[in-house]
Amino acid sequence: MTVSVPNESPAAAGNALKLRVEGMDCGACAIKVENALKRLPGVSHINMNYSTETLSVRLDEDRTSRAVVEGKIRALGYTPKPLSGAFLGTSDATATHEQAPGAEPWWKTRRGRMVLGLGGLLALAFAISTARPELSFWGYGAAALIGLVPVARRAFVGALSGTPFGIETLMTVAAAGAIAIGAAEEAAVVIVLFAIGELLETVAAGHARAGIKALVDLMPRTARIEEGGQVREVPVERLRVGDIVAVRAGDRVPSDGAVIEGQSEVDEAPVTGESTPVAKGVGDQLYAGSINANGTLRVRLTRTAADNTIARIIHLVEEAQGSKAPTARFIDQFSARYTPAAMAVAALIMAGPPLVAGADWYTWIYRGLAALLIACPCALVISTPAAIASGLASGARRGLLIKSGAALEILGKVRTIAFDKTGTLTVGRPQVTDITAVEGTENDVLARAAAVEGHSSHPLGLSIVAAAKARGLAIPQSFGGIAIPGKAVTARLRESFVSVGSPRYAAELGLLRDDVASGIVAFEREGKTIVVVLAGKRVIGFIALRDEPREDAAAGIAGLKALGIRTVMLTGDNRRTGEAIGRALDLEVQSELLPDAKLAIINDLKTAGPITMIGDGINDAPALAAADVGVAMGSGTDVALETADAALLRDRVRGVVELVALSRATLSVIRQNIIIALGLKTVFLATTVLGVTSLWMAILADTGATVLVTANALRLLRMGISLESGAPPKRRSPGAYSL
User: Fold this and answer.
1) Catalytic one of 25, 420, 616, 645
2) How far is CA 505 from CA 130, 508, 512, 531, in A?
3) Which of 314, 383, 402, 443 has its CA 20 to 30 A from that of 648?
């Protein structure tokens, strides 16, 4: 949860300060801190993120010192700590998590020690009441008051700081009221259960943060750098762009870079979720956190450790977890009105029956106090942010980078998904699909064409050369290549001059026989581009090329249709090529579109419901921005990470299905959490009015609801996602994150 409040002019903003605030377990905690700080002079641009336990503010230290800010936070019951590079701009994306206690046992935490201490006091009170029954009230009353003091102090500070209706206020009133009516034993039990509940919330919140911590753990702490002709190990923080590092078999790549020597297979699953190791050689890009499977690679770094792919993913996911999803905003607004209303209802329960019907005051005050405990909105407030945070972290582990809670929610509600063609549904480069030999063999035609195109930079020529090499053909030597712009390239081979040109060029020379021309037309109807290979004055064959669909494109489109989503391809390519790809993938097609035409179509499709646009993040920028959610393909490139609302790091069309499925699963968990939170409160409120619920049962119900919704949200980290329904199916083993 992020709260941003620019309550000062930029000119008076002062320095930007960032702190780690330990003990924040839910959105209500962030609201309390924000309400307190926004009342301090010289404090502005407050940004709280309870998911990462971070606070950033603009601080004018001439008006309010840093010590005052930290003191106000401590008074609310939280612990402020400086981050490395406390002033913004000097800390890296992982600073928060590197300093988080994480693995600290619960009994060593502040809340853990408090629970143990209160438990000891309760046991002592029980011993006193057993030995001296007449001292029972005093024993339990003393235990309750000792436990109530820190809670009441936090309630008082919260009320003065702008949060009069926090859980501490409800607890203080309920426990003090119980002592006042003689129910000291139950007051003591309620205080202990409240402390246990806070401890459980801390533990649950720690598990929720584990999603990002797992990403941080992917980053190696040291690297083997080449300096002065020697290789030595240094901290990754010392790495600079241009440094050369050695990555041995089994090592993690310390930062983004390009291979300058060596060949190996690299496991990119930690970064992109790709399960199969990827072959890497000279010139290939490597991503930080990926694992070198075999052989040593020399890598020239292109990014520092603070700016590599993993660091940027962590930063973007943290920002996304901190952003407010629509449901979360509604819940916050609802809970702000709900708590005072609930307190009013509790007061009516206490006073109504005695005043109206002459009922017993003790009985109805007791029931009103129980209702007051049940009224706590913690479970309701955390129901949505916990699910959103888990969903975002789960997606990041699968190579699905979603940059806001709002985008995660909307993806599950989309009715139409529009795709760009080139580089999105297709691989983005022409490939040789067919070779027809008029003379000799297919391999002979391809080898001669590759010889002519050997020095060409044209995409078609590069594809022809690549196809010949893929077949292992011996490419003849060529001499004196000459290009006729827009028509052909000619070169002298050992036996004759060979030209590779367009069908129109061959027709102009009068060399295109009718049977050859009809074969060319048949391929062109399939959206393929044809080049004719000439040897002297004879056509020896022709080659068909097309930008082919990605391997998983057809399965991805079919998966979206199974989810009830309409799919349409928007392309600037010619109608014939567009329709050929559309037929192959079984989706609607609109061709020959300029960027403004794509934008108009997106706006038109939005009238029927939420729409997602999938593109490469560059020429589709207007359409990506106009869609309700823009998704970029890009294998971790800057464009994919920074342009759209979401990015598919694995560069797979099937990833779009996974995005929708993850979103629907998250929405399902949110609905379940809201039902759990409100359902339990409704049931226990009814039983309280009927006199069935005791005070300790009331606080147990509230704590139980909070733990239940948090645990339910954490299922998104440990469950597979059904691609057909988008709902969480059976439980998977820990660490199984495949969709």
Assistant:
1) 420
2) 107, 5, 9, 10
3) 383
Which residue would you say has higher pLDDT here, 303 or 458? Answer: 303
Helix H, strand E, coil C: the string for 225-269 is EEECCEEEEEEHHHCCCCCEEEECCCCECCCCEEEEECCEEEECH
- Residue 130 has what pLDDT? 92
DSSP tag of 323: S
pLDDT given for residue 735 in this prediction: 31
Decide if 234 contacts 222 (C-beta within 8 A). Answer: yes
Maximum Cα interatomic distance, the chain, rounded to a whole number of Å? 119
Distance CA 402, CA 648 (A): 9
Amino acid at 624: L
| Position 248, amino acid | R
**Residue 150, CA distances (Å) to 74, 155, 512, 664 in order:** 12, 9, 93, 42
Question: Residue 313's closest CA among 637, 659, 598?
Answer: 637
Three-class SS of residue 365? helix
Q: What is the pLDDT of residues 576-631, one digit of tens each?
A: 888 888 999 999 999 888 777 888 899 899 888 899 999 875 567 778 878 889 89
H or E element that contains 581: helix 575-585
pTM here is 0.71
Phi, psi of 667 (to 5 degrees): -60, -40
Alpha-carbon distance of 235 to 416, in angstroms, equals 48
Chain-wide mean pLDDT for the chain?
82
pLDDT tens string 74-133: 888 888 888 654 333 333 444 444 444 445 677 877 888 888 999 999 999 999 999 999
Alpha helical stretches, state H, 76-165? 95-99, 110-131, 136-160
**Strand partners for 477:** none
Residue 359 makes CB contacts below 8 A (sequence gap 6+) with 353
- Range of 84-98, 188-202, 387-401, 497-511 with top mean pLDDT: 497-511
6-10-14-16 Cα dihedral, nearest 10 degrees = 60
Q: How far apart are CA 636 and CA 339, in angstroms?
A: 44
Instruction: Report the pLDDT value the prediction gives residue 142, as an integer from 0 to 100.
Output: 93
Number of C-beta neighbours around residue 107 at 10 A:
11
- How far is 356 from 410, CA to CA, in rounded Å? 50
- Rounded average pLDDT over 384-389: 82
Over residues 400-414, the pLDDT tens digits come to 888 888 889 899 999
pLDDT over 90 (residue 351): yes
Distance CA 551, CA 103 (A): 43
Mean pLDDT of 45-72: 84
Active site residue 420: yes
| Greatest mean pLDDT range, 179-193, 327-341, 525-539, 701-715 | 525-539
Rounded to 10°, the helix 654-689/326-357 angle is 10
Higher pLDDT, 716 or 721: 716
Reported as type and span, the H/E element at residue 624 is helix 621-626
Strands of 488-492's sheet, edge to edge? 431-437, 538-546, 529-535, 497-501, 488-492, 479-484
As a whole number of angstroms, the distance between CA 18 and CA 193 comes to 33
Strand ranges of the sheet holding 611-615, from the earlier edge strand across to the other edge: 400-402, 646-648, 629-633, 611-615, 416-419, 566-570, 588-590
Q: How many angstroms separate the CA atoms of 261 and 281, rounded?
A: 7
Buried b (16+ CB within 10 A) or exposed e, 211-245: bbbbbbebbbeebbbeeeeeeeeeebeebeeebbb
